[in-house]
Amino acid sequence: MSKSPEGGGPAHGLWWWERRRSALLDVVLAVVAGLECAAGAYSATIDRFGLGEPFAVVSAVLGALAGGTLLVRRRWPVLPVVVALVFVPALFGVLLMVVSLYTLAATWEWPSRRGRVVALSALALAESFGMALLAMFTPTSGPTPEPLPPTWVFVLLAALVAIGVTVPPVVTGLYVGARRRLVESLKDRAHGLEAELSLLAEQARERAARARLEERTRIAREMHDVVAHRVSLMVVHASALERIIPKDPEKGVQSARLVGDVGRQALDELREILGVLRMTEAPRQAEPADTLARLPRLVDQSRAAGMAVTLTVSGERRLYADEAEQTAYRVVQEGLTNAHKHAGGAQVAVLLAYVPNGVRVAVVNDRAAGGPAVLLPSGGNGLVGMRERVLALGGSFTAGPAEGGGFRVEAVLPSRLAVHPGGLGQ
């Protein structure tokens, strides 16, 4: 797809014309200019040069061809200007001169070709001035020639004629060409902005998709954290009831009551998460956040389920940001849940240490001591989720075999997450 030399846009018409109406305009201009040049050449050949009819006909044909060069003014804008300069000394071809100068100024890019435009326009101005002055000083035949006005009058009139023929079309062409190029640049910029907006919209959709995926992952992780531990305790208690009820009915009743309490807590926490998803519901009074201050209660629940677990706290107590304290709490919760699942009857130690570089939590269990086996389902994502949460806060997380057997889950959160009197963190 080609571009129009004058408009710079894609050409959908005939040859070098962008539109068919542009071709029609050039045809009309070429016909009118050809008739003018043919009549001027015919008249000049007979009246001024005194040649015969054959020479006049040849001159008229050449004049018509000269005017016809306007057909190619958009493709080769210099050609009509050169032809007009050739015919200026013969004192005809005014329309050819005006249209060709306008086209030259409008189609040639400014300022990359300003030298050629200025040179050709100046030459046309000089020729027009000289020929107009020559025509005014040429004596007219007649019986009694009238006295001539002063010379400066002829010079002024010749200058006005030359300026009127050359300057307005050049200035108009420069304005139209600059305006057209400005419109084209604005169109290109608009297309660029449209493409950029499309790209930004696509990126926004991708970010929204990633955000939805991250939110689903976060909700699934949160449901696992708050429900899996309590459900594990319920399963452990339910399994113990089978052995306790025949031997000690009163203790069985207490265990059953504990199962109910743990189940209600799990339902409450699950209801809170679902309430966040259903935004149309009225907000409920939130339960106290799971923080490090509630670790003793968490350990007591596991102890009540029959686990031999101890809690050791060292260092000066410091408050941490809610997300940091909840993450540390979840690490301990996940460690206890894994001990229930895989180390029945083992000794479990929960460690909470406030160290200079932050807060450290660990859950360590030794080898299983042959306790009752409780088969609990496991998705294998609990420790992976804990690692992601800890690393997202800038901490470190390890989970693996402990020295002398057993298993160890440990996390360290940085001190910059601590709450200071002036605000959160540093």
Automatic annotation (TrEMBL):
Residues 215-279 form the Signal transduction histidine kinase subgroup 3 dimerisation and phosphoacceptor domain. The chain crosses the membrane at residues 23-42, 54-72, 78-105, 117-137, 152-177. GO terms for molecular function: ATP binding; phosphorelay sensor kinase activity; protein dimerization activity. Its EC number is 2.7.13.3. Residues 183-214 form a coiled coil. This is histidine kinase. The lineage of its organism: Bacteria, Bacillati, Actinomycetota, Actinomycetes, Kitasatosporales. InterPro entries: HATPase_C_sf, Sensor_HK_TwoCompSys, Sig_transdc_His_kin_sub3_dim/P. It catalyses: ATP + protein L-histidine = ADP + protein N-phospho-L-histidine. Pfam families: HisKA_3. One of its GO terms (cellular component) is membrane. Keywords: ATP-binding, Coiled coil, Kinase, Membrane, Nucleotide-binding, Phosphoprotein, Transferase, Transmembrane, Transmembrane helix, Two-component regulatory system. It comes from the Bacteria.
